[in-house]
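Hi support team,

I'm opening this ticket because the web form for multi-chain structure prediction keeps timing out on my end. I have pasted the exact lines I submitted so you can reproduce it. The total is 585 residues across two entries, so I didn't expect it to be a heavy job. Is there a limit I'm missing, or should I split the entries? Thanks in advance, R.K.
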Amino acid sequence: MTTTQTPPVIPATHEPLLAVARSVAGEDGVTVSVFRDNVRFHVVPGKVLAVLKNLRSECGLDMLIDLSAADYLNYPGAANRYGIWYVLESVSSGLRVIVKTWANDPEPRLDSIFDVWRGADWMEREVFDMFGVVFDGHPDLRRILMPDEFVAHPMRKDYPLRGEGERHNFLALSREQS
Amino acid sequence: MGLTLADAIASPEIADRECQWTLNFGPQHPATHTTLRLILNLDGEVILKATPDIGFLHSGFEKLGEHLDFNQYVTIVDRMNYVSPVANEIAWHHSVETLLDIELTPRCKMIRVIFGELMRIHDHLLACGAAALDLGAFTAFLYAFNQRELINDINEWASGQRFHPSYTRVGGLQRDVDDAWINRVRSFLKGFLPAHADICRLLNRNRIFIDRCRGIGVLTREEAINRSVTGPVARASGVVRDLRKNRPYLAYDAIDFNVVCAQEGDCLARYLVRMEEMLESHKIISWAIEHLPGGPVNSDVEERMVLPNQLSVYRSIEGLIHHFELNMSNRKWKPPVEEVYASTESPNGELGFYIVSNGGPEAWRARTRPPSFIHFALFPHLAEGHTVSDVAAILGSLNIIAAELDR
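Hello R.K., no limit was hit. The queue was backed up. Here is the completed structure from your submission:
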């Protein structure tokens, strides 16, 4: 989400990765930003599955370290509401890259990477539970931390920290019914 | 959360098998230690399908992280993996310091290394002790907890709290350690090796323990990488990956130690890797405590990132202003409007924090990469095909901490 005018300096180790990503998503499909030791590829949502697949098969980025999301509602300079990141690493060389993409209301959707990394299973379920981003192709996309009856997505910025609670949404069982 | 018992029974892939039945394991069960639930579909004693059901301890830690500032949130981070609290604090402030670009002082780095390794021993003692306890070896558990008590004392001496020390601060520590603390660490180190040898003697050739661990819950190297497994669980499957070596942080690049690995990937390998890692941690602490640099523990106060000490607050106007600036809710830190992922090797695996900052003193998003969460997703893969009695062995070897699992 930087607004820097000068193009970022990409470390030489990440040049081949960028070439692979651009060969899949096109020149305009990938933008790069660098902050501290983090190198980020911002990939358009439609191409992210293909980019991740190729980064795994061709560049040896064999481990999905982290997958999560943030809600950028009213964030300074943000164009999209949800940002989703994939932290990838190569076990043998230790090379690390962060692939970022985005989704928007009213129906935030992305392709699931369940078939690329099994480790994405619960991480995608958590993002779905907390932010309501739907991952197409995930075989078992249920809530994971919140109960099934829960209706909201609590990590969204428009969900308050304090409030009335959700007790009214739960069915009250009497002794006779139980 | 999810599958009801009725759903599980009606599941098509197992509905037509005879003799199958469903067992509800947890949320309150001695072998789960905390609150997690498993729905086991069984054929006799053999597990056909295991469905974990989590979220009982979900308490919105990450949401709180968006409303507490970088120093306040450390008290919440403590309570994630409460078995190795300072390791979480180090990970959290490592990310914050990466965001703010703060360079720590050599003394602070070394004290954090010592605490990080003490916490590794702390965590592994519980993991190994409780794993043995679940398999019926009670004595080893008591020996392990005896040593853990001494580490709690060390925490208390440094910070005033035994269990949730909240010891680190942005750019430094709550307070410096004194000679008495150093002597405590030294005497712990002296007593630890005989205790470790005792535990080894109790378990390493214990026929029952080994028979219940060997070949149980095997995780191959490929599956470990595919399923994002890190830490001792991955190293027991032959994944040579330790962030202390791969991406050295704090003072680890100056310290000589070995990365412990095994090939088998079963419960026994995970136990042995943890036992051996404790000896490596012992080696690191023994070296670090004798090479503790002098100087301040807090990094450059001029940059107004680190809380000043009490003396300068009370005796100088600069100190007072500085203290004011870092404590008033409309001032505090001004990080760049950026985001950063940084991680450390916690006892349980890679513990990372992805911080999104909007330029304010609180994180916009404080994502935790919790190793327990990722390791518990493994459970069905490891347990299916084994018997009910192996559930305790597999859970013990994964060292699932439910507070970190659910956050």
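A quick check on our side: Chain B touches chain A through 50 residues (CB under 8 Å). Let us know if the file doesn't open in your viewer.
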